[in-house]
Amino acid sequence: MGTVMVDDQRRHPRIAFKRNVQTRSKNARQNGSLKDISASGAAISVDLDVEKNDMVEIDIEDMSPLSGRVARSFDDGIAVEFDLEEDEEERLLAEMTALHGGMRIEEVE
Questions:
Q1: Cβ–Cβ < 8 Å for 5, 36
Q2: pLDDT exceeding 90 applies to what percent of the chain?
Q3: Mean pLDDT computed over 53-59
Q4: Distance between CA atoms of 55 and 95, rounded to whole angstroms?
Q5: What residue segments make up the domains of the chain, in order of their start?
Q6: pTM, full prediction
Q7: Which residues of 26-47 are buried (b: 16+ CB within 10 A; e: fewer)?
Q8: Could you give the 3-state DSSP secondary structure of residue 68?
Q9: Which whole number is the average pLDDT over 18-26?
Q10: What is the C-alpha separation between 98 and 5, in angstroms, rounded?
């Protein structure tokens, strides 16, 4: 059974799980791994040469492609913020639910 991590500062619950990811930016294409995802963004372990606000396309294993802007970089990757229309957000939430059915929700402190 997986765990959904909820942080009161976030608009949407984050789901922490690993999936293979391929990222593309204007400068490069790089394989990495998903650390966590929500309907508003994702944290990805990847060695990609990008700056804040650069657009990134993300192909996540077993999910539909996504795109977003780099919100920040951290030691081993990037955080990407999605700008999804309501129907795209619903599709993403449905995919996340299908991949992680039966999860417990735990508060992140």
A1: yes
A2: 51
A3: 96
A4: 22
A5: 3-98
A6: 0.78
A7: eeeebebbbbbbbbbbbbbebe
A8: strand
A9: 93
A10: 17
Q: CA-CA distance, 84 to 35, in Å (whole number)?
A: 20
Question: For the residues of 22-46, what is the DSSP string, one character each?
Answer: EEE-SS-EEEEEEEEE-SSEEEEE-
CA 15, CA 11: separation in Å to the nearest integer? 13
Residue 97 pLDDT grade (very low, low, confident, very high; cuts 50, 70, 90):
confident
Fold (topology level) of 3-98 = Thrombin, subunit H (2.40.10)
* Residues whose CB falls within 8 Å of the CB of residue 35, separated by 6 or more in sequence, listed in order: 16, 18, 42, 43, 44, 45, 77
Structure tokens at 87: 């129907």
* Mean local confidence (pLDDT), 72-98: 91
